[in-house]
Amino acid sequence: MKSLTPAQRRRLFWELMRRFSTASAADLADRWAWLEAAHVVGQQQFALHWASHTAMLRFALQTRDFGEAVGQVLRLALVPPGHLLQRLPDGNTGRATVSALAPMPVDARLSRLIRQAAAVAVPPSPPCF
């Protein structure tokens, strides 16, 4: 994931967000997984990181998950200092159910979603000669 250019990262992030918005409204777990995958991809770029937490806050409010909503407000408050201090925990899903400061391995499900979206959003690298 670190090998993505900023432009590739943006395209992949917005493809993950598109898949979140078009996922079945009945499957909350799938929709959260798309948002988590977008957070993992976007957290190294301020605008994408902010957008992922804003989307998580909106979704938490839509689904009346007020504990998650409070957690997202707190995470939004941490985004600017996290970027200024360059203290962003790799792999963190961004949910209120995990520590905002803990790096974590990207689980298999999120890796699969990221690969699916990357197949569409990130053009293959040109061959090196």
Give a short synopsis of this structure.
The chain has 129 residues and is mainly α. Helices cover 64% and strands 0% of the residues. The protein has 5 helices and no strands.
Description:
The protein is an all-alpha fold. The chain has one domain (6-121). The protein has 5 helices and no strands. It has helices at 6-22, 28-42, 46-62, 66-84, 108-121. The radius of gyration is 14 Å and the shape is globular.
Question: Biggest sheet: strands, sense, closure?
Answer: none
- Give me the strand/helix succession: HHHHH
Structural class: mainly alpha
Distance separating the two termini: 23 Å
Tally of individual helices: 5
Helix % is: 55-70%
Strand content: under 5%
What spatial form do the alpha-carbon principal axes imply? globular
Low-confidence stretches: none
The total strand number stands at: 0
Write a concise keyword list for the protein shown above.
mainly alpha, 0% strand, 129 residues
